[in-house]
């Protein structure tokens, strides 16, 4: 399952997004385009992610907490700032 294109468009001040539990298989930078500067908490736990959404997460400059527990990931992406807390 994917996010419907534009479903979060216009939500520029969104600080917290919990997409759990679900069937999400992928997350792209365009899915979170309008939340790049505002999103602080992203909860993707209990989904079906097989690949860590590195490109999408790197664009989130305000992100402080990312939860990817209970997915189908075999490793996390590299290159994240230590100021971000990743739960896996």
List keywords for this structure.
88 residues; globular; 6% helix; 1 helix; mainly beta
Structure description:
The protein is mainly beta and 88 residues long. It has one domain: Leucine-rich repeat, LRR (right-handed beta-alpha superhelix), CATH 3.80.10.10. The protein has 1 helix and 4 strands; from the N terminus they run ββαββ. The chain has a 4-stranded parallel beta sheet, with no helix packed on it. The chain is globular and about 30 Å long. It starts with 15 loop residues before the first strand and ends with a strand. 19% of the residues are buried. The mean pLDDT is 87.
Q: Major beta sheet, specifics?
A: 4 strands, parallel
Helix proportion range: under 10%
Structural class: mainly beta
Number of strands: 4
CATH architecture: Alpha-Beta Horseshoe
Strand arrangement across the biggest beta sheet: 1-2-3-4
Proportion of beta-strand residues? 5-15%
Count, helices = 1
**Terminal Cα span:** 20 Å
Tell me the overall shape. globular
- Average pLDDT score: 87
| Radius of gyration using CA atoms only | 12 Å
Number of domains: 1
Outline the low-pLDDT stretches: none
**What's the CATH H-level homologous superfamily?**
Ribonuclease Inhibitor
Give the secondary structure arrangement, pairings included.
Layout: E1 16-18, E2 41-43, H1 54-58, E3 65-67, E4 85-87
Parallel strand pairs: 1-2, 2-3, 3-4
Q: Concise description?
A:
This protein has 88 residues and is mainly beta. The protein is built from one helix and four strands; from the N terminus they run E-E-H-E-E.
């Amino acid at each position: 399952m994917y996010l419907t294109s534009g479903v979060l468009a216009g939500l520029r001040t969104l600080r917290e997004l919990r997409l759990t539990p679900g069937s999400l298989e992928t997350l792209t930078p365009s899915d979170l385009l309008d939340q790049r500067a505002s999103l602080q908490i992203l909860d993707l736990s209990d989904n079906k992610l097989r690949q860590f959404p590195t490109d999408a997460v790197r664009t989130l400059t305000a992100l402080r907490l990312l939860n990817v527990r209970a997915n189908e990931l075999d490793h996390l992406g590299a290159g994240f700032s230590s100021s971000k807390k990743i739960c896996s």
